[in-house]
């Protein structure tokens, strides 16, 4: 059996972390969470995620869009999905600028996010 795909969720809202973690684990993914980019940095090496779901407005020294650029330079081939409360226009603009693989506004259907993650990782929908 192939190894489960690994997903790291980075968001400062504990409710969002728990909701996405539960949905993605139910879909068969191995999921870790971090409340900021510093925590994500600690997980990055040991966990080696295939995909990162990244909020843009995060506390700490790096915002999510800045962290995206860093992830791209450190992890060749990693998939990055922006998931943020910004307006869809602003989110799309930042996604294009920072080469996010997909963007989703918070408040949308989480099932659409899960399906997009499956497509990005080449995993059939459950």
Q: In a few lines, what is going on in this structure?
A:
The protein is α/β, with parallel strands linked by helices and 126 residues long.
Architecture blueprint of SSEs:
Blueprint: E1 6-10, H1 14-26, E2 30-34, H2 37-47, E3 51-54, H3 64-74, E4 79-84, H4 88-97, E5 102-105, H5 110-121
Parallel strand pairs: 1-2, 1-3, 3-4, 4-5
Label this structure with key terms.
alpha/beta, Rossmann fold, 5-stranded parallel beta sheet, 5 helices
Structure characterization notes:
The protein contains five helices and five strands. The chain is α/β, with parallel strands linked by helices and 126 residues long. A five-stranded parallel sheet has the order 2-1-3-4-5, sandwiched between helices. It is globular, with a radius of gyration of 13 Å. The two termini are 16 Å apart. The mean pLDDT is 88.
